[in-house]
């Protein structure tokens, strides 16, 4: 996996769009439009894996999730309906 990420730079990393504060504190709401597909949802990293956050594995899981998603999309020629 390290080889896959070796050429990654800030241009390859998505950033949240339409992020705004909904209340005082550290809570944020992120609009996913237009970055969703119908009624389907994809969870990655901490959101997709049942583990305690203080093990520090969420980011690693997120990287692996992105790699597996990319390989899956390649396998179906980016047709996510498959």
TrEMBL record:
GO biological process: kynurenine metabolic process
Pfam families reported for this sequence: FAD_binding_3
Keywords linked to the UniProt accession: FAD, Flavoprotein, Monooxygenase, NADP, Oxidoreductase
Cofactor(s), by name: FAD
GO molecular function, one term: kynurenine 3-monooxygenase activity
SUPFAM superfamilies the record matches: FAD/NAD(P)-binding domain (SSF51905)
Any single GO CC term annotated in Swiss-Prot or TrEMBL for this entry: mitochondrial outer membrane
Domain of life: Eukaryota
FAD-binding domain boundaries: 36-73
InterPro entries assigned to the protein according to its UniProt record, in alphabetical order: FAD-bd, FAD/NAD-bd_sf
Annotated PANTHER family: KYNURENINE 3-MONOOXYGENASE (PTHR46028)
Entry protein name: FAD-binding domain-containing protein
Organism: Oesophagostomum dentatum (Nodular worm)
